[in-house]
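Hi all, long-time lurker, first post. I run a small reading group and we've been trying to get comfortable going from sequence to structure in the token notation. Rather than ask abstract questions, I figured I'd post a concrete chain and ask someone more experienced to write out its structure so we can walk through it together at our next meeting. Sequence below, copied exactly:
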Amino acid sequence: MRLELPSLLITDDDVDFRETLRAVFEPRFRTILASDGQEALDIVQKCEVHLMLLDMHMPRLTGLETIQRVKQFKSRIPCILLSAGLDEALERQARLAEAFSVLAKPVTRRQLTSTVDAAMRRIYGWESPGDADDPSQ
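-- Answer (accepted) --
Happy to help. Here is the structure in token form:
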């Protein structure tokens, strides 16, 4: 299965970081931006979202709380949590919340793109456009 243009929801209260992530993933993804977990929840309820990148520390809802709530009604969506304060307790909580992965900030472009590609491949069988240029797929 090949998604023509999957959607990626980037949730972070730092506008500069959101825009940096948008630049990394466009045009491979249709990017949607949210400034906090509550806004991300509202978007997921109204729009088709294939993957979520979430910062841990945000106002209203943390990234972890957002993942927990999203998984109640969209259990299949892969969620990647980013945190500057990554420790074993947070990793354990993220696993329990069924996060696809947890990455420590600062994160490299390569870590981020390879984790996103792995999630898309595992959940949707999606190959990045450079790997699957055959229009019959």
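A couple of things your group might point at:
Residues 109-124 form the longest helix (16 residues).
The helical segments are 15-25, 37-46, 63-73, 88-96, 109-124.
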